Give the backbone structure.
Amino acid sequence: MTQRGRHRRQKRGRALRALLAGTALALTAAATMISASQATVSDRTGALKALSASDRAAAGLRLQERAVPPSTLDRLASAMGRPVGVTTVLGNADHSLLDGADCPSTVRTALPVAPAAGRAYCWDAADTRGWRAGAVTTSGDADDDGHWGEHRVILSGWSRGSGRAGHARVAFVDATDPARLTYTWATLAVPVDGGRDYRGLGSRVLGMVWYQGKLLVTAADGLYVYDMHRIQRATVDSGAVGRVRGGWSAYGAKYVLPAVGSYRLTGRAASPAAISLDRSTAPDSLVASERVPADAKKTTRLWRYAFSGDPARAGLLATDAAGRAAPTQAYETRTTGVGGVLSYRSDWYLARSADTPDGRGTLWRQNTRKARAVECGADESNHCWTGRAGSLSYARDTGEVWSQSGRMLYALPLASIDRSLR
C-alpha cells in the first residue's frame, strides 16, 4: 500500500473523524426501556486469571498451520481467470445500506442501549432473509491508516445452514463516504480436487480479522485464511457453489474467496470463536475467546497469538519451524456466552449475549485486577448491550469499535465505552 499519499490521507482522516464525532443516534423509547427484573450483574465474574506458560501448553492452545499448495491455487485461477483485488470488488457494488435513522424501529432495537451507537446502518431485509449476521472487520484492521487503497472498507460475515447445506459469505462494504455505504457479496470457499473445483465453507462465521493482505475467519472446525489479492469472479448466477455448466457459481454472489490456508488447534481445546486484532502490542496480535454457553458452569479462556514480522508471511501468525503458533498470553474469565472479544493495552472487552431470547447482553471490561460492566437505566442495570452479542473490531485511526447485531451494523467510540464503565 505504499502508493498512497500519507499527507492527503491525514487531511481526509481528520475531516472524516470530525464528521463521525457528531450526535449519537437516538434510539426509540422501547429500545431504551430496561426491565427492573433484569437485576444488575455483579462483579462476580472477577478479574482475569493469567495462565502460566505451562498452563498454556497444557491447555492445548497451539495452532497448526496448513497452507493450500500454490499449485492448487494457481490451477483454480487458471480455470477461473485472473484474480482481482478489493478495489475491483468495491467498484461492482450492487447494494446499499440504509442509514440508521431510516431503519424500521423494530430493527433498531438490536442496537445497544448504552453506550449509544455513534452511527448505524441496516441491511436490506430481502437481501439478508434466511442469513445470520456474524463477524465484522474493517480496513482499520488491515492497515494502520484505516484505508485500503483509496477506500475505507468494512467486511461483514454472514452464514446460513451448516455442513453440506451450509453457506458463508462476506459483504464488501465501501464506507469511504459515511453517508452512502454500498456493498456486494463474496462467497467463502475451500479449494478441492487440487484446484479443479471448490466447495462452500459450510460453517457459521464466528469471527473475522483482516490483517494486511489476509482475512482470518473462525468457523466451527478451525481458523481459515483468505488472500485479499486472490478474489475470483463467479461467472454463473445460480444457487450452486463451485464448477457448474457454463462456468463457476457462488450461490448468487459475484465473487468467490478461496481459502489459501487454515489453522487447527493441536490439543482438545475448543476452537477459537470470537477474534479481533490488537495493535497495542508489539508485534500486533490476534486475540481469541472460546465459545462457552452462557449457562455453562465453567470458565472461558482468552488468549493471543503474535503475527509474523516476516514480509514473506504478511498477515499470517508467527510460527515455529514445524508451523505451530503458540499463544503468547492466556487468561481465564468467569464470563460466559462471549460473542465478541477485544483487547487494547491491558484491558479486555467482552460482549456477552443475553440469557433469554428477548433480553439484552452485557459489555464487560476486564483485566487482571478487576472487572466492570457498562451501566444504563435508572436502576443501573448492566443489561445494556445487544441481545445477541456480535464480534468487536477496533479501528484505531478513528477510535471506533464496530459490531453488528440482527440487521444493524454500527460503530461507537471506544472512549464512550470506557466512560460508561466509570
Summary: The radius of gyration is 21 Å. The longest strand covers residues 182-192.
